[in-house]
Amino acid sequence: MNKYLKYTLKGLGILIGILALVYLAVYTYVVFNKKVIVEQVRQQISEELTGNVKIGNIDINYLSNFPMVSVMLENVSITDTMFQQHHHPFFTAEKLYARLSLVRLVQKKDPLNGIRVDNGQVYVYTDANGYTNAYLFAGKKEIADTTKPRREKSIIKKIALNNVRLIMDNRLKFKLYDFDIRQMSCDIKTTENTLYFKTKNRIFVHSLAFNVKRGSFAPETQIDGPINFTFNKDKQQLAFQDVSINLKGHPFVFTGNFNLGPAKTFMLKIVTNNIMYDFARSLLTKKISTNLAKFKADKPVNAVAEISGPLNGGDPLVNVSWASGPNNIQTPFFDLSNTSFTGAYTNELVPGLPRLDPNSRVQFHKVKGDWQGIPFRCQNVYIDNLLEPMVNADLKTNVQLSTLNDLLDSKTLKLTSGQASLDITYAGPLGQNNNRNTYLNGKFKIANALIKYRPRNVELHDLNGTIIFKKTDVFVTDVSCKMQGNRIEMNGSASNLLSLIKTNPGKITLEWNVHSPYLNLETFTPLLRKRNSVATVSTTASGKLNRMANRIDEMMDQANIRLNLKADKLEYKKFKADDLVASIDLATDSYNLNKVSLQYGNGSMRISGSLRGENEYYQEAKVKVNMNNVDVNKVLYAFNNFGQDAIESNNIEGKLTTDIDVRMDIDRTLQKTPQNLAGYVDFSLKNGSLINFEPILKLQNFLFKKRDFSDIHFAELKDRLEIKDRDIKINRMEIQSTAMSLFVEGVYSLKGNTDISIQVPLSNLKKRDEDYKPENIGSDAKGGTSVFVRGRPGEDGNIKFKYDLFKKFRKDDKSKEDKRKGK
Q: Exposure check for the chain: N or C terminus, fewer CB within 10 A?
């Protein structure tokens, strides 16, 4: 055997022998002085503790703290003076081991330098009136007789707890701290001002409720790991820093301090990385956890929680912050993927106000991610008042419109192509709260878009424009597109749109301004057709924005649109006009023509009226038209002589001024002749002339055969024409011309019921000079001796004129009038 090993073993043997002899000596001393030692320990405990102390048994123990010698106390209990009322013992222990210092024992000093408790409980109780048994912590040293000499106390250097329940139940301040200390060992070192504690722990937290009404932090949570902390005697402050422990197996770093002096405050900071969102949420109070449960993340985040406040009452201040790399987020309204962000929670948004849900905020910053294939960015998102959550957020994105089309799945709009960019800020409720609190500010830009309006089957090509949101109002600016082959420019606005779109789309009024250098109205006739009923087209993302799409559809279907239209040139078949200015109200299958003016036929026109859908094929039209100094031949030409052949555009010239008030049924394609006409036309034709007008030419068969009736100029021609269906009643009308004087009355009918009487005064026998200027004498003038000619349809349907020698027309007309009046 190596001599060095031999010497080593020999030395160890001697050392063990010496220790054995020492321990034997200690054992012998303890055996012979057992009663003295037990009494000394009992006396020290009695002096240290206040209250009713009960000990079931006390004895010397050698094995439990070997090689140290302990006094074992069994079935220990300490109760306060009010125990019989509240029934919460301050302290209980199945076994309490008081570790002894033999040196101090021999020196007749307090020998206690360590404590171990097995299967016990500490219950610090405060009732609703403020009474507490916490005074037992003070011990008799606080109330001892100061006249007696003070004995040097021993210093506790070791504390061990096994299966000890620590409960601090404050019914006055609504606090409940409940810890199940399954195993804890604590080494204590001391200096003049500071105690140093080094612990190893396995603790189960049942409750860490700073306010039981709000719930507990870290409920039912296992805590494992060493905790080293200090206690400053002067400041009465317990503190620890960067303590690494595990909660439910996940590592956390704790820093904090507890001021146990007059201030009675605390601060606790908790840091952890790579923690799952739901797990982190489970460590917060039920109320906070429930609020945060509206959001989910399927990948870990880094989090920091800071909790601070009073120890003797009131809600603590809670601040939680977090950061995440690419993550998948779920919210009550949409899911986000590949999203990175930072965020925070506080229960004191406004300092000084109660730390409750209405004063709480959840916030996210530097949010960047993807939603249904749409990339987006949010610099800031704030959710305030978690009782009735209100959101403030900014959003930026660029997207292909076809992507939105798939998501909206709208019955009204089809977004076929183009790009869109969105830059808005939103303020409003997270849930279905008061819609008047919903505000948007920002812009939505569209470029090179193709959008189809499904109900009318109308497409907008090359659409470019900007939608501006200002609170609840919406403004559309700088919009240009091609619609039905017409190039148009548009802008518009809607007041309180964002509120009404949710509550009452029928009350929405859109102010819409349209300008076009050239407008062909014939291409817009599809707008008069019955709205198509469009079925929803299912897509893979159907329903993602279904609620929004339905609201847009309702708005498009029910909203009232005020259309302010301007066109430099206007055309409808043969009708051509300039400088169109119109104000039109568009509602569901109806149009109100408020003010329409235009330049036409070297004169002007003003139009008002309405269109109302009667059925699938016809609309009821009510129209008032004023023409001022318009070329009458152009009017007849443009409107195909109004469906009659009595006088055509090439037969007449002059300046026409009219007031027209009629109603009729027009077909939605504008291809058929209007039906059920009723109304009147007040007209004045100045500087008029008839050119090769066949009815006048036919008069040559009866009168003035040698006169030229091919070009007749006449004085102002004016009358009221009464229209009933397709019959036009001509009230007695005076015609003073260069050829003759006439009085005309009767009915001109497009249904074959024409019956016209022409009175030709015999004064016409005198031939008129070439420079003769005709002047009216009044339609009620008798006209003197006259010849009467009556025009009625012949067998071939053409008007035939015959002498009415016995004025039968007037007799028939009077008979019809009497019959109409019931005479």
A: N
**Torsion angles phi and psi, residue 318, rounded to 5:** -120, 120
Cα(725)–Cα(714) distance, integer angstroms: 30
- The answer to whether 166 and 207 have CB atoms below 8 angstroms apart is no
Residue 536 has a pLDDT of 47
| Contact of 663 with 620, CB cutoff 8 Å | yes
Lowest model confidence (mean pLDDT) among 29-33, 574-578, 682-686: 29-33
Task: Provide the residue type at 212 as one letter.
Answer: V
Reported for 707-712, long-range contacts at CB under 8 A and 24+ positions apart, including other chains, are: 707/739, 707/740, 707/767, 708/739, 709/739, 712/737, 712/738, 712/739
Q: DSSP class of residue 150?
A: P
CA distance linking residue 695 with residue 740, whole number of Å? 14
Inter-residue contact 168 to 198 (CB < 8 Å): no
Confidence of residue 568 (pLDDT cuts 50, 70, 90): very high
Query: What is the full DSSP assignment across 554-597?
Result: HHHHH-EEEEEEEEEEEEETTEEEEEEEEEEEEETTEEEEEEEE
The string over 119-138, giving b where at least 16 C-beta atoms fall within 10 Å of a residue's C-beta and e elsewhere, is ebbbbbbbbeeebbbeebee
Beta bridge pairs of residue 307: 268, 318
Bridge partners, 54 (sequence order) = 77
Measured CA to CA, the distance from residue 299 to residue 336 in angstroms comes to 12
Q: d(Cα 621, Cα 590) in Å, to the nearest integer? A: 10
Tokens 């893979």: give the residue.
540
Half-sphere exposure of 763 (CA within 13 A, CB side): 11
User: What's CA 741's distance to the chain center, in Å?
Assistant: 76
Q: How far is CA 247 from CA 186, 205, 218, 224, in A?
A: 20, 10, 8, 7
DSSP designation for 763: G
pLDDT by residue (tens digit) across 594-638? 889 999 989 999 999 988 877 777 888 899 999 999 998 888 888
Highest mean pLDDT among 329-338, 340-349, 785-794: 340-349
The separation between CA 139 and the C-alpha centre of its own chain, rounded to angstroms, equals: 62
Residue that has been written with the tokens 């009350």 in this structure: 507
Strands 250-259 and 237-247: antiparallel
pLDDT per position as a tens digit, 279-319: 888 888 888 788 778 788 889 999 999 999 988 777 889 99
Mean pLDDT taken over the chain:
80
- CA atoms in the 13 A half-sphere facing the CB of 62: 9
Q: What local confidence, expressed as pLDDT, does residue 357 receive?
A: 85
DSSP 751: S
- What pLDDT, on the 0 to 100 scale, is given for residue 699? 62
| Rounded distance between C-alpha atoms, residue 811 and residue 352, angstroms | 100
Dist. CA 419–CA 444, nearest whole Å: 11
Confidence at residue 544, expressed as pLDDT on a 0 to 100 scale: 46
User: Quick check: 559 pLDDT over 80?
Assistant: no
Euclidean distance between CA atoms 145 and 147, whole angstroms? 6
Q: Are 328 and 299 within 8 A, CB to CB?
A: yes
CA distance 744 to 61: 142
Give the model confidence (pLDDT) of 663-722 as tens digits.
988 887 777 777 888 999 998 989 888 887 776 666 666 666 667 777 788 888 888 889
Q: At what angle do helices 401-408 and 546-558 cross, to 10 degrees?
A: 90
HEC-encoded secondary structure of 279-333: HHHHCCCHHHHHHHCCCEECCCEEEEEEEEEECCCCCCEEEEEEEEEEEEEECCC
Q: What percent of the chain has pLDDT over 70?
A: 77
Q: Which helix (H) or strand (E) holds 697?
A: helix 694-699
78 Cβ partners below 8 Å, 6+ apart? 49, 51, 52, 53, 54, 89, 90, 91, 92, 136
DSSP assignment of 28-55 equals: HHHHHTHHHHHHHHHHHHHHH--SEEEE
Is-contact 558 424, C-beta < 8 A? no
User: Among the listed ranges 532-541, 595-604, 779-788, which one has the minimum average pLDDT value?
Assistant: 532-541
- Which one-letter amino acid corresponds to residue 658? T
